């Protein structure tokens, strides 16, 4: 007699539970598993499903970053608006920097081609003369005359107000590119005049020293402008102003000395005679047959033949051009000495001395 009663109780309990679920009642009975009515001693496998329904999956860092970017996208139009506004206000100065940048890379390419014999040196010389004339015109006639920015070329202060750091930064960039272009003019003149009178290896040494002197000198003009800016007297009545200006100037001077020391340390190999010593022996009296050819130019050996340490022979000019970029034998990859190959091709550093 007890079994029907239990069954009817289970049925009523189940219907009641369903009614509570439909009515939206969130009482404890609505979440009970029907299987509990049959036995309280058997584990319910379906209860685990209900216990994990409310848990959320963890958000990955990529999704979090993407959501953050999406939530801040609205600021991008405002940033672009202010950038365009600055570009319009300083349009002349911006176009000047862009033109100097393009001229620098164009002339740098002409120089490397002339050094390696890919094109006549007269092309690089003509391009450097035209670009240098344009820079001189801008300094003395057109854009830079009002503030006398050309004084920065000889490490003198210009007429830009010392508290206008944006204009000072622009003047520093202009002076740096101008000095680079003048350096490339000297290099192009050297390549043109020494194309037949100077050996390629000797010319490479001179080009490296010109670049080293140029980089050291280009560290000085920015210091003049930034010392003016850091020592500007913004509040003469404040006794702490003098101390802060002295502190900032000393700190900048120490950082500048450290930067110059790093530059000299990186170029230290040029002070060693072994760096530029030719890694071959020259044979002037060598008699070669018509069947022997240089494996670099695929032509008959010239009058001067270079014999490497691995006994491979090449034309001396071919080996000198090869050694501008490489430090191993073209045939057997035998090491030929110094690893310092920077600036031997007549190129100029693209690093802008902002500070």
TrEMBL record:
Can you name this protein? RING-type domain-containing protein
Localization per record: Membrane
The principal localisation class reads: membrane
Keyword Transmembrane attributed: yes
- Is Transmembrane helix found in the keyword set? yes
Which keywords describe this protein according to UniProt?
Membrane, Metal-binding, Transmembrane, Transmembrane helix, Ubl conjugation pathway, Zinc, Zinc-finger
What are the record's GO terms for cellular component? membrane
Where in this chain does the record put each RING-type domain?
294-333
> Which Pfam families does this entry report, sorted A to Z?
zf-C3HC4_2
According to the record, the signal peptide region is none
In its UniProt record, which GO terms are filed under biological process?
positive regulation of ERAD pathway
Membrane topology reported for the UniProt record: Multi-pass membrane protein
GO MF terms here are: ubiquitin protein ligase activity; zinc ion binding
Transmembrane intervals: 74-107, 122-142, 168-193, 205-224, 244-264
Q: Say which domain of life the source belongs to.
A: Eukaryota
* The organism of origin for this protein: Mesocestoides corti (Flatworm)
């Amino acid at each position: 007699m007890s079994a029907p009663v239990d069954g009817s109780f289970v049925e009523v309990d189940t219907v009641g539970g369903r009614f509570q679920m439909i009515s939206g009642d969130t009482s404890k009975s609505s979440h009970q598993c029907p299987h509990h009515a049959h036995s309280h001693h058997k584990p319910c496998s379906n209860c685990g499903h209900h216990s994990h329904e409310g848990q959320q999956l963890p958000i990955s860092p990529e999704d979090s970053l993407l959501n953050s970017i999406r939530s801040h996208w609205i600021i991008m139009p405002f940033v672009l608006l202010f950038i365009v506004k600055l570009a319009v206000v300083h349009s002349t100065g911006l176009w000047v920097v862009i033109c100097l940048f393009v001229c620098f890379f164009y002339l740098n390419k002409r120089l490397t081609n002339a050094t390696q014999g890919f094109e006549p040196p007269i092309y690089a010389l003509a391009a450097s003369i035209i670009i240098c004339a344009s820079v001189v015109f801008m300094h003395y006639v057109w854009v830079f005359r009002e503030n006398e920015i050309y004084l920065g070329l000889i490490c003198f202060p210009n007429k830009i107000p010392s508290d206008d750091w944006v204009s000072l930064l622009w003047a520093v960039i202009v002076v740096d590119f101008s000095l680079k272009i003048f350096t490339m003019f000297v290099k192009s003149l050297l390549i043109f005049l020494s194309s037949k009178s100077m050996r390629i290896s000797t010319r490479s040494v001179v080009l490296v020293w010109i670049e080293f002197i140029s980089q050291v000198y280009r560290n000085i003009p920015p210091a003049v402008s930034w010392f003016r800016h850091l020592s500007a007297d913004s509040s003469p009545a404040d006794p702490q102003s003098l101390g802060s200006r002295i502190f900032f100037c000393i700190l900048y001077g120490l950082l500048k000395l450290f930067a110059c020391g790093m530059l000299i340390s990186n170029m230290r190999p040029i002070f060693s005679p072994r760096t530029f010593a030719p890694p071959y022996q020259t044979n002037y009296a060598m008699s070669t047959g018509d069947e022997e050819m240089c494996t670099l130019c695929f032509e008959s050996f010239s009058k001067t033949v270079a014999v490497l340490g691995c006994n491979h022979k090449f034309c001396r000019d071919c080996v000198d051009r090869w050694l501008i970029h490489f430090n191993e034998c073209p045939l057997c990859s035998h090491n030929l000495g110094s690893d310092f190959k920077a600036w031997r091709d007549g190129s100029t550093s693209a690093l802008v001395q902002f500070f």
